[in-house]
Specification:
single chain; mainly alpha; 0% strand
Length: 57
């Protein structure tokens, strides 16, 4: 459960950073399906990275 919570936290953090960059460069947050798809494709990598963290301890 800890791994899932960390994954969600990092996903939300990266989404906020991405939206901040859109505000900085475009002056508005533009909804794009490509951003949503790339975010979902990135989720498994974040999830597996959270699992690797425990192995190093």
């Amino acid at each position: 459960m800890d791994r899932i919570c960390k994954t969600i936290w990092w996903f939300v953090f990266l989404a906020v950073v991405w939206q901040g960059l859109e505000l900085l460069f475009y002056g508005e947050i533009q909804p794009r399906i490509v951003d949503d798809i790339m975010g979902l494709l990135f989720l498994p990598f974040i999830y597996f990275a959270m699992g690797k963290e425990k192995e190093n301890e």
